[in-house]
Amino acid sequence: MIGHRIKKYREQKRMSVSELATEADVAKSYISSLERNLQSNPSIQVIEKVSQVLGVSVDTILHGESSNLQDESLDTEWLELVNEVRNSGISKEEFRHFIEFSKWKVNNDKG
What we know:
By secondary structure, this protein is an all-alpha fold. It has helices at about 1-10, 15-25, 30-35, 45-55, 60-65, 70, 75-85, 90-110. Helix 1 packs across helix 3 and helix 2 packs across helix 3 (about 30-35). The protein is elongated, with a radius of gyration of 17 Å. The N and C termini lie far apart (about 40 Å). This is XRE family transcriptional regulator of biofilm formation. Keywords: DNA-binding.
């Protein structure tokens, strides 16, 4: 389904596979194999690159337009937290590692 959504949004933007591949810095053959569902488990990095070029959220690529997350608005406290993290110089990848470590720690502290 990810490939179907990529193709849908690519076509809505009237982009060729080549154009998307070039702008997202992803191999044309890989984009093509995603769209034909020959490759069905792309990395989050690929999804981020493609979604940015297509002008849609990662969540939309992963789950479609009807995702509940997309319909929820963030409260002020969450927005402030996100801005604080972004302004601190922490990369998205570093923040993801922190979240994963925190989940691991919580799970290990329970036992």
